[in-house]
TrEMBL record:
Entry-linked Gene3D superfamilies: NAD(P)-binding Rossmann-like Domain
Official protein name in the record: Short-chain dehydrogenases/reductases family protein
Keywords: Oxidoreductase
Organism: Glutamicibacter arilaitensis (strain DSM 16368 / CIP 108037 / IAM 15318 / JCM 13566 / NCIMB 14258 / Re117)
Classification of source organism: Bacteria, Bacillati, Actinomycetota, Actinomycetes, Micrococcales
Stored PANTHER family: PKSB, RETINOL DEHYDROGENASE 10
UniProt keyword annotation of Disulfide bond present: no
Keyword Membrane: no
Family indicated by similarity: Belongs to the short-chain dehydrogenases/reductases (SDR) family.
SUPFAM superfamilies, alphabetized: NAD(P)-binding Rossmann-fold domains
InterPro entries: NAD(P)-bd_dom_sf (IPR036291), Sc_DH/Rdtase_CS (IPR020904), SDR_fam (IPR002347)
Amino acid sequence: MAVEKMESVAGLHVLITGAAQGMGLLFAKQACREGAARVVIWDIDEAKLAAAAEELRQLGGNVQAHRVDLAQQQQIEEQAAQVIESGGVDVLVNNAGVVTGSSFAEHRSAQITATMAVNALAPMYLTHALLPQLGRSGRGRVLTMASAAALVSNPNMSVYAASKAAAMSWSDSLRLELEANPNIGISTICPTYINTGMFAGAKSMLLTPMMQPEVVVDRAWRAMLAGTPLVLMPWTSKLGQFLRGALPRPAWDFVADKVIGVYHSMDEFTGRTRETTGEERLEVR
């Protein structure tokens, strides 16, 4: 059954994770501009969260900000229960993410755990907690930011790719489970590298420049409103998927390595060190 399209989030309650900066803050600004009844923002960085909340209130938004460590299941469930009790959620944006750009051998166990927890498990735990009341107003949405890395293997980002593959598969499976409900739309977005600082040092690929966050947020938001199931962006991601499926594995490896440059895109990755994670080269969106 087709999901009923939404014109905006006016009058709805919106929850956005990783909303203290970058794309999360852009999502929150869009919700405020459209007249959301309430915009709930979560982030682990308390100082930036407070600044973001003030900026959003200047836009006229009814904003509630909560420091939440998405690597902690208990915090997710406790905060989700509070949000439900205080008005519920109609639109959930699973935006928060972390990346470690190094060979798998160089990963520390804490980095593996944090990446899988934030990128893969947190969206599941949070959506699971909110799902029973989602769509109660007749309009419900879950937007999950995955990655093109979920679709194409790439050296020096194995754990990140694995976490995003898990998020993508889970999100689209959930969409299929909820197909009979026209009030709830599940959308998964898989962009290439985005110029937020999260992928500082990553190299552009053939015909695939670093994407601007405003462009990604606009496309993702429109997909969410329309209930579009899956978005790959830019168009070269679709081409890459076609070639990966059509070519023999050695031929695809050659194209990805020598022609497109996928396999070398993380060679000079630096990211930004974040004190809140306690892990070097663990970058937060």
